[in-house]
Amino acid sequence: MKQVGKSSTGLEQNIAALISYLLGPITGIIMLVLEKESYFVRFSAMQSTVVFLFIWIVSGVIGIIPILGWIASGIIALFSFLLWLYLLFKSFQNEKVELPIFADISVSLIRSIFKE
Q1: Which one in 21, 50, 69, 103 has a CA-CA gap of 20 to 30 Å to 86?
Q2: Taking a C-beta distance cutoff of 8 angstroms, is the pair 32, 48 a contact?
Q3: Rounded to whole angstroms, how far apart are CA atoms 9 and 15?
Q4: Rounded to two decimals, what is the model's pTM?
Q5: For residue range 103-115, what is the model confidence (pLDDT) as tens digits?
Q6: Which residues contact 24 (CB under 8 A, 6 or more apart)?
Q7: Could you give the CA distance from residue 28 to residue 25 in angstroms, rounded to a whole number?
Q8: DSSP string, 42-65
Q9: Angle at CA 49, nearest 5°, toward 4 and 104?
C-alpha cells in the first residue's frame, strides 16, 4: 500500500521511512522519537530497529565461532546488506514492507509504546 503525504517531522513519509532504515537501529530509534503521527514512518522505524538489532546480535554471536562462524557471519552480512537496500528502495517508493515475524513484533511494540 502506498503511503503519501508529509509526516509530523515535516518530511515526506517516504523520505522519513527511508531515513528510518538508513542506519538501522540508530536512525530507527531517532525516527521513533521524532515521529508523532505517521503509522507508516513509525512502523518502518520500529521494524528497522528490531530487524537490524537482531541481525547485529546474531552476527556477533555467530562471528565468535572460528571459521564456520566467520563464513556464516559473512553470509549474514551479505544478506543484511541486500535486505537493507531492498527496504530503502521500497520505502522510497512509499511501499510498506512487512517482514515475516519482525512485522508482528514491530506492530506489537508500536501498540504497546504508543497505545495505538
Answers
A1: 69
A2: no
A3: 10
A4: 0.91
A5: 999 999 999 998 8
A6: 48, 49, 51, 52, 53, 56, 84
A7: 5
A8: HHHHHHHHHHHHHHHHHHHHHHTS
A9: 75
